[in-house]
Design goal:
The structure is a homodimer of 215-residue chains.
Chain A lengths: L5 E6 L3 H11 L5 E7 L2 H11 L3 E4 L8 H10 L5 E6 L4 H9 L4 E4 L4 H12 L4 E2 L4 H9 L6 H5 L3 H10 L5 H8 L3 H15 L4 H10 L4
Parallel strand pairs in A: 1-2, 1-3, 3-4, 4-5, 5-6
Helix pairs in contact in A: 2-3, 8-10, 9-10
Chain A binds a DNA duplex (30 and 30 nucleotides) through helix 10.
DNA sequence: TCTGGTATACCACTAAAGTGGTAGGCGGGC
DNA sequence: GCCCGCCTACCACTTTAGTGGTATACCAGA
């Protein structure tokens, strides 16, 4: 950039909203909208052309949605900070966005001045999140805590212990050494827990356990 | 309880702090401290005796720490809401507490009136989190997003595809049928991706992939 | 054109995982 | 006291998984 203001790319399919956001952003002399796009393909093209400091990305877009766009941007090795800017306070969206590598998640109903502050922070690399999402984030982390009790109940303590070790990728032999029992005995436990969980291999056990947060 | 105020159990090894919190809580007629404990064992005993609506749990305790205590309480099927109350704004602690099933995480440096409000909410079943932890929670969800990019980059499309199938628990033979290639070829791909990811078995691949959200 | 990476296939081999059955010791409940 | 569930152990056996090497074909970049 010719000056040292932060360059921003807007990706949103609503022209009016882009206009409004652009006006708001350019009230702050430290930030500048260098490009706009109304869909994923266009957005990626612009991102590669301008390599902006910050990309403001809408989630609800026709054809390719925001999360997909985000993943595609990352695939293309776009190094810009990417902040999702959306109306959706849906848990799945927030979690998906963050897991896909979003550097922020801001809601469109924010106060304009708060938005400006957040964008400035985001441009410098700070992870910004609308405060309203705190509780939701915490719930996402808890996620599955109590749902597994049903299956887990039928397992003996030893079996649960072995499931955790499998979910850490350990082989039977390693588990045996760790628990000071023979490999044969480990196999017995594995056999039993496979039956109880109605799974077909230790890989399935590992996947299940990791998803339940057991490791 | 004889009245309909929320019953609270304090578990904290600092008597002075317990005293302070108790005084604060009882300024609100809707809440009442029914018991106190200075360690895990005592805490569990009291929890079972009084079955309080809410347990306020310190993390830094001698012998058995707060997270362990939390797990033990859940093991004992204590149904009280459990809110962690600590000085630690450490990411690991927050995440561990929530994963262990905490119904809240409050920092000791909160304003007393905010604390009271939060406790009241917690007693009614709302998940309460100190606002200061928002960013941290989001980071925890992102977790390791970019650390692996290096690894992922070296993988061929075919290998990525096979990783996803492994992460769904599939055996080589099943993968072969799905991709219309021989089992031997699948093994070749698996061999290569194991090398690239420096993992030792498909179980480790599955665990890694699930944690990265690849399935 | 040559090189290098990718995808495929086959082979032989070793190692690990999973199955089936038997069995002893141990602790809790009827 | 007896039975039952749990943990342990051993056995033989089959199936999967993983290793090492060789080889063909395709495609893209130097």
């Amino acid at each position: 950039m010719q000056d040292n203001s932060a360059s921003i790319l807007l990706i949103d399919d609503h022209p009016l909203l882009r206009k409004g956001v652009k006006q708001l952003i350019e009230m702050n002399p430290n930030m500048q909208v260098v490009a706009e796009a109304c869909n994923a393909v266009e957005g990626i093209k612009q991102a590669q052309k301008y390599d902006p400091d910050l990309i403001l990305l809408d989630l609800n877009m026709p054809e390719i949605n925001g999360i997909e766009t985000l993943k595609m941007l990352r695939e293309e090795n776009v190094s810009s900070r990417i902040v999702v800017f959306t109306v959706s306070d849906n848990e799945e969206d927030v979690v998906a966005a963050l897991k896909a590598g979003a550097d922020g998640y801001l809601l469109k109903d924010m106060e304009p001045e708060d938005l400006l502050t957040s964008l400035e922070q985001a441009a410098t690399g700070t992870l910004v999140i609308s405060p309203r999402l705190t509780t939701l984030l915490a719930q996402a982390l808890q996620s599955n805590k109590r749902s597994d009790k049903i299956d887990m109940q039928t397992l003996t303590p030893r079996e649960k212990q072995i499931i955790r070790l499998i979910a850490n990728g350990m082989a039977n032999k390693v588990i045996a050494r760790k628990l000071n029992i023979t490999e044969g005995t480990v196999k017995v436990h594995v056999k039993h827990l496979l039956k109880k969980l109605r799974l077909r291999s230790r890989v399935e056990v590992a996947v299940w356990a990791v998803q339940e947060g057991l490791n």
